[in-house]
Amino acid sequence: MMVMGILLFLVTVGIAIAIAYQANENVRKFDEGEHESFLGRRD
Amino acid sequence: MEANKQKQMLEDKKHLHRFGYAQELLRDMGGFSNFAISFSIISILTGAVSLYGHGLLYGGPGMMGFGWTIVALFVLLIAASMAELASAIPTAGALYHWAAVLANKRWGWYTAWINLIGQIGIVAGIDYSFALFADPLLSGVFGYTSTETTTLIVFAITLLLHGIFNHIGIRLVARLNDFSAWYHIGVVAVLVISLAFFTKHDLQPLSYLYQVGETFSDKPYAIAFLIGLLQAQWTFTGYDASAHTIEETINPRVRAAWGIFSSVAFSFIFGFLMLAFVTLSIKDAGAAAGAGNAFIYVISEALGGTFGNIVLWLVTFAMWFCGLASITSFSRMMYAFSRDKGMPGSRHWAEISVKYRTPAKAIWLVVILSFALALFDYVLKAVNPDTSYTTLSFLTAVSVVGLYVAYGIPLYLKLRAEARGDFQAKHLGPWNLGKWSKPINILSLIWIVFICIVMVIPPNQNAGYALIGMMLLLMIMDYGYYRKHFPGPEAALNVSMEQIKRQEAKFEE
Question: pTM to 2 decimals?
Fold first, then answer.
């Protein structure tokens, strides 16, 4: 169980780092010109 | 540097104007302050410590190794999903506003009320917990006898102080939250180092942290483990605060999003370290699980009564900071909902103090409502002193389900809006998950449904009944009045730029 527990901890840390890396990349690549504010459905 | 800041603030104001809102609140918070407010509300020294006994009782030592990590894993996904929406729709209404624009104003209205129910329980619960810890400590210092009445008085004074600090301004509250973040990290470091090097007995082997199958409750282990998850799940709440203070944050589309995500990530790491070392220093798990405060019992056994007492003071101070930040978050949510006229007396709660640039009346309404809840509990106990019923623990269970339902609704609506082609990649803010967005949103929703069911199974079934009752009450309010009279955030889109400028001019003089 200890090995499973340590693996679970490492996976959680790994996922957190991966999400942070992905989000940071997207922040750097963000182009304001292509962005449009979402103001809701205009029925 | 200052010129860059001014330029960024102008940009932030422009983004807010697109949603039809004026910049009424003082935009002064940096990235660390935004992170600190959520980190202070999550407060590993409040939730994980006060519910340590709950986790140990039901899940045994394995709850700290497995339970904390499993919950953190899914909460990280929820936080990432929320951070993405905060970056796309950066307004103080947050969950409520996201739901309203992703679907319609009625979804928004229900989300807002469910969020408000969750927030009021959290504020009252945290400050009342502080009073329960602080009153016996203060009675030792000042030589009086701690009773239900003195606890209520300490609670009232605490709320009053939190109300005053919040009223005076976001600058002061932000500085206190910055200090709170370092304070939490410092206390965890002191605990970990002390337990690692000065424990009176030998530490348990690392495998002890992952020992499952042993419960000190009368439930089968699988059920007991699920009930024990509440320790971690209760701790990981309130990180929407970074989104509620988004109109007070500079460059919020990036910084508030990071605030939501990183507050959960760092709470996971520091919380894990603290729980691991406390659990490894347990001498007798059965005795600890049966103690009034299992956390303090373990610390006292490991490091002596004096150190246990010091830790008690340190934890109590952390709760004070947690309560302070909770009121900030709740008042901003109430302000945002009221400016769209979603509450009775909205005109007052949406009013911003010209002098302090804070939603002063909303802050004091939060204080009054929180006190009223505790007073209700006090009167119930006075009428029936033998009751084992505790209103606040029940309300806390209700509030956590309320908060997670409010977190889940906009995530579901985002997936729905994407499927319909309404919400597209061009609508995402700078902080986004790209192609990972959809799977992360789906996993987040699955966990929210699962944990909401876990939270209302016995012994917490009353929380489920109460939530159904509240939903019925909300439906009566909705069909009786708000269905036809709630303009929703879309009404703000009809506000002219002249009106917005006129509103902002009031605060610029």
Answer: 0.94
